[in-house]
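Q: Predict the bound structure with fe (ii) ion.
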Amino acid sequence: MSQQIVLPRLLQIGAGASTQVGQILQSLGCSRPLIITDPMMVKLGYVERIQAHLPPSDVYADTVPEPTESSLRGGVARVRQGHYDCLIAVGGGSPIDSAKAISILGKYGGRMRDYKVPRIVNEPGIPVIAIPTTAGTGSEATRVTVITDDECDEKMLCLGLGFLPVAALVDYELTLSLPPRTTADTGIDALTHAIEAYVSRKANPYTDAQALQAMGLLAPNLRKAFHHGEDRAAREAMMLGATLAGIAFSNASVALVHGMSRPIGAFFHVPHGLSNAMLLPAVTAYSIPAATARYADCARAMGIAGASDADATANQKLLAELIALNTELQVPTPAAFGIDRARFFSLLPVMAEQALASGSPANNPRIPSAEDIVQLYQSLWD
Ligand SMILES: [Fe+2]
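A: Predicted complex:
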C-alpha cells in the first residue's frame, strides 16, 4: 500500500527566512500580493518588516483570533475587488487559517460551511505564502484550516490541497519576543500535533519520521522557550519542530485531543493550544491501552524515557511529564480559566457530537463512543 504526502512547494527555513519573501514571490511568478494579518502584527512592526522586502503591497489586517466566518468577509471582499495574484499570511495560526479560507472563498464564493469535512477541498485557491510568527499550529505546512461558524458556534474543520500554502517562510527570529503565555499555548499545540500524528491510525513511515523528529525538538525546548524567550537555540528548535509536526499531522491527521478541543474552543473561547493542553493528559491516559508501544516511542523521542525503559514504564513517564508540563506552563483547569461548570455540563452532548462529526476521534488508537467523550470532558472537572 502506498501513501500520499503533500507539502508546500517551497519551504524557506531558518534565521532571516522571512526576508526572502520578495525572491520567493518572484520564483512563484507572483507580483500582486495582499498581506493578510491582524492588528497586533501591524502595531508591533512585523508587517512593515515584511513589506520592506516587497513591492508596495496592500494589507488586510482585520483577521481575529480563532477566526469566525464573519471575520473573513472583509478579506473576501478585498480579494474580489483587488485582482491579487497571491496572499501573504503574516502572524500566528489565526491569520494563516484566515488567509487559507479567504483564498478559497475569494475565488469560489459560497459559505465556509460548504467547505467543511467530509468535503475535501482540492481545487486550488489564490496561492497563499505563509509567514508564521508563532511556533505552534504548523498551519504554514498543512492542508487544514479551522473556521468557526458564527451561527452555531461550531469550529469547522476544513481539509484539502486547496488549503495548503504554496510556500512557507519559517523564521524563528519572528518568535523571539513572543510572550510566555503564547509560547506555551502554541508550543503545547505543536507537541500535541506530533504525538497525535504518531499515534494516529493514518500514520505512515514518512509522518512517523517527521513526528518523532518534531517531538525531539519540541519537548526539551518548550520549558526553555517559555522561561527564556530570548534563547535563540530553543526558539529555533521550537519553530522547526512546529513545522515538522504540522507536516506530520497534515498527512497523518490529528486524533481525539483535537476532536475534543475544537468544541471547547468554540463554546468557551479557550485558545486552541490551551484547550489541547487541558485535554492532553486525560486523553493520553485513555488512549495508551490501545497503543502502548507507540506512546512509549513518544516518551523516548521526547527524551523523558530511555531506550532501556519497558513500554509500561515509558508510558507512565509520558503521563507524568504531560501533567508536569501543564503545571510548569501554568495551564489552567477549565474552572480556573473561568468556564461556567453548569453550561459546560449542559453542552456535553453537543460537544461530543461535534467532536465525533469532525472525524478526528476516528483516527485515535482507541476509538471513543459519544459516552466515552462525555466522560473524558467530565474528568477535566474532577
Ligand atoms: Fe492544533
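A: The radius of gyration is 20 Å.
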